[in-house]
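Its record is set out here:
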Amino acid sequence: MSLIDTRTPNPKHFIKGATGDWEIVIGMEVHAQVTSDSKLFSGSSTAFGAPPNSNVSFVDAAMPGMLPVINDECVRQAVRTGLGLKAQINKRSIFDRKNYFYPDQPPGYQISQYKDPIVGEGVVMLDVDGEQVEIGIERLHLETDAGKLIHDQHPSMSFVDLNRAGVALMEIVSKPDLRSSEEAKVYLAKLRTILRYLGTCDGNMEQGSMRADINVSVRAPGGEFGTRCEIKNVNSIRFAGQAIEFEARRQIDILEDGGAVEQETRLYDPKTGETRSMRSKEDAQDYRYFPEPDLLPLEFDQAFIDALAAELPELPDDKQARFIADYGVTPYDAMVLTLERETADYYEACVTFGGKTRDGKAVANLVNGDIAAYANSQGLSVWESSIQPSQVAGIVDLVAAEVISSKLAKDLLQIIIAEEPEGDPAEIVERRGMKQVTDLGAIEKVVDEIIAANPDQVAKVQAKPTMIGWFVGQVMKSSGGKANPKAVNDLLKSKLGLE
């Protein structure tokens, strides 16, 4: 990871210590499992949850005489990811042996890329508290995953499962541009969103298909970089934030006590909320990198890159910009709607159902509001809920035509959820007599009754017109929510002398 400072210190990121302010500096190495049916250098399956050691070939087990053969699909996925990160694609890259011995690594080395990766510098844009933050990507390289050690099945033995050995990983290395645990969490979430849009990694952190090594150091604001510690294999966005907070405070306490931070690799324990030492931190020379002798350099031409670029889907940042421009949603709504590709597709299906374009803001309010709340209560994403785009479109159309009010729209949605999941909104409104009352005579009668019954409240509203909402609420309550809100407001202003 390069150590070039690209950001101006921001006081809102500073941490108060006993002796003054401190600034966190964070860089990440995210390991993302490539979406592929087979491993990087063998035909073994990558299916999750298979019985131990059932997805292992002679190549994965490092049997003598077995040679690696590159999986073309993994190369394509890495290039697509690089394009999605707006990064430089290197037409020539080299695989290297990263030498270290561990029981879950049968050859005694990992096939990786060191000086000549497949993807160079790129960028990820973050929206953090309404501020646009640019995080540099230093590189993306392909490498093989290791197996898994199992320690809890026997008191005196450990077991090795090689199902993951040889699985293709993309290691995405950021520059040390992150300055807070919140930025780090937003970065991980944004990177996962991009990978899922591209279809190059499923981003399932709980299954280990995306995990992060987090480099944390502290310094005086704007000063020289401090000694960094690496927190290894963090598999949750929430845990990432917690680990950074603890580690930064640990380092600050050491420095303020007159000590020195030691460069090391640490682990985060979510049960205690603390990091603990794992081993001293290795440098590149400790791994004795050298070019993999069994693999030729990886080479392709610009036509290969251009063909993959032409097939890329619309990515989150582009989709956000289009939703704002075409559908009039707020930047925040656009961000929420595009966090998942499926949610964005669901929203757009609601807006354009039946070949016409609805008020995008009205649809966004419904999708990000009551529908999202219902989906969350069921442990689902919006697009997984039982509410169909045709039903959302129907509700929005009824409000736009002033057949029902916004209040009745909420009631109608609850009826669809709880009682008529297959129901047509317009038919339900007609059958249940839910149509909005627009007869001014009928509304005026209710308004007159409410005013006559509350002379004290009349005086308060005339003294403070903003209190008219109390009368609006009473009229709507009396009419069962069916009175046209605009007509109610107009009549009340007229009768209370507020015009």
